[in-house]
Write a structure and sequence with these properties.
With about 300 residues, this protein is mostly helical. It is built from 15 helices and no strands.
Length: about 300
């Protein structure tokens, strides 16, 4: 039997026009349980509690005293009022206080990270006897409260003529932050892969080159996190700068805010403006290094 052209065409299997859906594009819809909604509600509640003081500071910084007296602290300002910010800026010489805080916090952060790396490299990777007890000593240094150290530190820096100098605060906080950084990095470097170190040593690298060419680049995310934390922690310190920086030209931003409020009776809007100017630099610094901080925290999750 001879098959015609139409018969042959009809005998061909028809190709399906519908492509099979890729398994990678399948989205599974999961239903949220009661516990998920409870956790979400708790997180939202905590976020609101944390954000509420910032909201009050921001809206009250741009209010006049009359607007605050009439509408209260929760309402938006009727018209923007900048006299409170200008008054605080000029009264405490805020640019000088800002520079002092940046100088102290930046120097402490960089110096503490470098010292922490050197100490942790010797303790965690180097062959040091009694490394456990050394780490315990650094741990005890972190536990001691600052109030206990004020009296002896006062006489030490008085004797070396560094009292009422920004360098006294820089030295103190560099030691404090380096103690914590050493304690943290010692445990990190203690689990450092020995194969990488042995390969670098076989290639002829000295211990100094192994530190700066191998160890530091691999641990850079962790060091970035320490750098950010050291800067913010030092910026927010109040007690030691208050005790060791007595002259007006050496004071930091938190000390300037506290001394101004104790020296003069300020209205609530100027006080809010001072708090806004005090916290704004740290927020900007955190936002600039937010990506670096996120990478450092999640670096250990993926090889």
């Amino acid at each position: 039997m001879v098959m015609t052209h139409s018969t042959r065409r009809s005998a061909r299997p028809k190709a399906s026009l519908e492509r099979p859906e890729s398994p990678f594009k399948i989205r599974r819809k999961t239903r949220r349980t009661v516990s998920d909604w409870v956790i979400l509600g708790i997180v939202v509640g905590i976020a609101v509690i944390v954000a509420a003081p910032f909201y009050l500071i921001i809206i009250n910084s741009f209010k006049s005293p009359e607007d605050y007296a009439e509408n209260g602290p929760l309402q938006f300002p009727v018209t923007p009022y900048f006299d409170g910010i200008i008054a605080f800026w000029n009264r405490v010489n805020f640019p000088l206080k800002l520079w002092n805080s940046f100088l102290i916090s930046g120097t402490v952060a960089v110096a503490a990270v470098i010292i922490s790396v050197l100490n942790a490299y010797v303790i965690g990777i180097g062959k040091v006897k009694g490394r456990t007890w050394i780490v315990v000593v650094f741990l005890i240094a972190n536990i001691l409260p600052q109030e206990v150290l004020l009296y002896p530190l006062y006489f030490i820096f008085k004797a070396v003529s560094l009292y009422d100098s920004v360098w006294s605060v820089i030295i103190i906080f560099t030691v404090f932050q380096a103690a914590f950084g050493t304690y943290l990095l010692s445990s990190v470097y203690g689990t450092f892969p020995k194969e990488i170190l042995e390969a670098a040593a076989i290639d002829g690298a000295s211990r100094w080159k192994i530190l700066w060419r191998v160890v530091v680049p691999i641990s850079r995310p962790t060091l970035s996190v320490l750098l950010v934390f050291f800067f913010i922690w030092t910026w927010n310190e109040f007690l030691i700068p208050l005790a060791f920086l007595t002259s007006n030209d050496n004071q930091t931003v938190p000390v300037a805010i506290a001394t101004l409020q104790g020296d003069r009776i300020l209205d609530i809007t100027t006080t809010s403006a001072s708090a806004l100017l005090g916290v704004l630099p740290t927020i900007i610094f955190f936002l600039i290094f937010q990506r670096t901080l996120a990478r450092g925290i999640t670096a250990g999750a993926v090889k």
